[in-house]
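Loading example: each entry is read as two labelled lines plus one structure line.
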Amino acid sequence: MDRVKVAVIGPGNIGSDLMYKVMRSRNLEMALMAGIVDSEGIQRARSLGIRTSLEGVDAVVADDSVKIVFDATSARAHLRHAPLLKEAGKITLDLTPAAIGPYVVPSVNLSELHAEPNLNMVTCGGQATVPIVHAIRCVAGARYAEIVACIASKSAGPGTRQNIDEFTQTTARALTLVGGAKKGKAIIILNPAEPPIMMTNTVYVEVEDPDEKAIAAAVAARVKEIQEYVPGYQVRVPPIIDGHKVTTIIQVEGAGDFLPKYAGNLDIMTSAAVAAAERLAHKLLAEEVVA
Amino acid sequence: MSKTDFIHIVDSTLRDGSHAVSHQFTAEQYAAIAGGLDAAGIEYIEVSHGDGLAGSSFNYGWAALGDEEMLKEAASAIKRAKLTVLLIPGIGTQEELKLSADYGVRAVRVATHVTEADIGEQHIGLAKKLGMEACGFLMMCHMAPPEKVLEQAKLFESYGADWIYVADSAGAMLPEDVKARVGPVVEAVKVPVGFHAHNNLTVATANAVAALEAGATFLDGCCRGLGAGAGNTQTEALVAVLDKLGYRTGVDLYKIMDVAEEIVGPAMHRPQEVTSAPLMLGYAGVYSSFLLHTYRAAERFGLDPRDILVELGRRKMVGGQEDMIIDVAYQLAHT
C-alpha cells in the first residue's frame, strides 16, 4: 500500500474542495465522501467515481480501510462524530470550530502532534497568521500578537456569520498556544466589494528584540515553507519595524480547485488540512514498512 | 411631524468623539463629560473606544483607559441618562458585552457594514437577554443602494433590534441620499429609525434634518462636533436646530452649550475643522476613522494623505480596515 485511504464527511464547499485536493495527493486516496442527503456535493463525488454514502459518520466508522477523516460539517455535528471516530481508531482532522483536539498549523507544530486522534485546523485567519507570528517570535520574541483578517463577504458562509465571535476567540488563542505570543488578539472584517477581494491578513507583533534583518529573514523563510502547500500565499508588505512593533501584510489567493480564487480563506484551511493529512500519511506508511 | 415631535438624542462625544483625541480621554474627562451630558438632559450617552468595545489595539489605536475603566467613570457620573456602548462584531465579542452589563450599560449599538447585518444577530440576541435596548447600526450606508439598506434593516429588526440606525460613516451623503435611504426603512420597519452623520462634506446637520423629514426619530451628535474624520453633527447645534424646528429633545440648550464650551473644549487636541483630508474622506467615500491613521502613514512614507484616501476609496475598503492604510501607503511609496 503506497496511499492512505481517507474519507470526507460533509460534501459542501469545503468538503468538495478537500476532495479535489486529496485526488491530487501523492500519498492520499479519496476513498469515501459521506453526507446525509443526496446533495449536489454527493452527486459531484459520485460522478468523479468516488464511493459515496448517505449514512454520514456511520459509513466512515464502518469502513476499516479508512485511516484519516476530514470533518467538514459543523461544530455541533463534530461533537457527535469525534468520539465515534476515535473509538473506530481513525485520525480526524476537524475543520469545524468545535476545537476538541489540539490546534494544528502545518508549518509550526505538526511534528509534535502525530499521535493525536483529533486535530483542529483552527481558523482561516489562524492558518494565515500563526506561522508568521511563530517565525517572528523565534528570532525576536513576541510580547503580543494582533491580527486583522479581511475576507470577501461572498466567501463567508452562514456558519462563520452566525458564530463570528468563535473566529476571533479561536484565532486569538492559537496566536498564543501555537504562535507562542504571550498575548493575542484577532479581528475579522468582511468586505463585500465586487469583484471580490483576495483575503488579506495584517500581522502586528510587539517584539522583545526588533532585529530587522533577522525578522525579515525569518518571515521570508516561513513564507516559502507555506507556499509549498498554499501556492497563493504572498507577502504584500514585508515586515515594517516601528520601535517594538512589527507589521507584516499577507495576501492569500486560492488555488481555485473547486472554490473561486478569491476564497483564499477557505483554500488555506483545506490546503493546511491536506498538508497535515499527507504528513500523517507519510508516518503511517513508514510505520507499515517497519512492521 | 405627523408621527412625533420628540427626538431621541444619542450623544457620542465619549465614543465617536474619542477618535478626535486618538482615544486619549482621561478618567476625569469621562466622568466630567458624562456628568455634564446627563445634567443637560441627554437621553443616551455612548461611551466606548471609537471602534467599539475591545477596540483598543495596534490597528485602531490604544486607548488611555480600558473599556471597563471608562464605563466605570462614566457610570459614576450618570443619574438619568442611559449609558450606551458600541459593539462592532469581528472586533468586540459577546464577552465584552456581558462585562459591560456589570457597569450599568442599558443600551448597545451593534454595528456592521451595511451589507453584513447577519454577523450581529447573536449580539442583538444577547443584549436582549441582558435586558438592554439593542440597536442595529448599519455603517457606510452610502456604499449600498436604498433597497440593500432596507433589506439589512429588516434583518436587524427580525433579530429583535429595538431601533435601527442608518449611518453615513464616511460623511459622503447629501441630504437627498439620506432621505432615499432613511425613508424606505421608516416605512417598512415597526421600530424607530435613527441617523448618524459625519461632517466631511459640511452637511452633517443638514443631513440630520433630512433624516428627520424622512421620519427618523433618533439622531446622533458629539459636543463641539468631535468625531472621526471631520467629526459628527454638533450636539449643541443640533439641539438648537431641533428647537427652532419645533421638536422636543429634553435637552437644555444652555446647559449643553456649557458642557461643549467648558468641559469638552479644554479636552480637545485640535480644532475640529474640515481641512482638505477630512473633506477628501467625504468626497472619496472613505471611513471617517481612517483620518488620523492616514496622517501618520503619510508622514511615515512621505506621501500626500489625499492620495492614500483616494486609493482606499477606489479599493472599496470598509470600516475597520485601518490596516489597509499601511498597505496602500506602502504600495504607493514603492511604485
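Strands of chain B lie at 8-14, 44-47, 82-87, 107-113, 133-139, 163-167, 193-196, 218-221.
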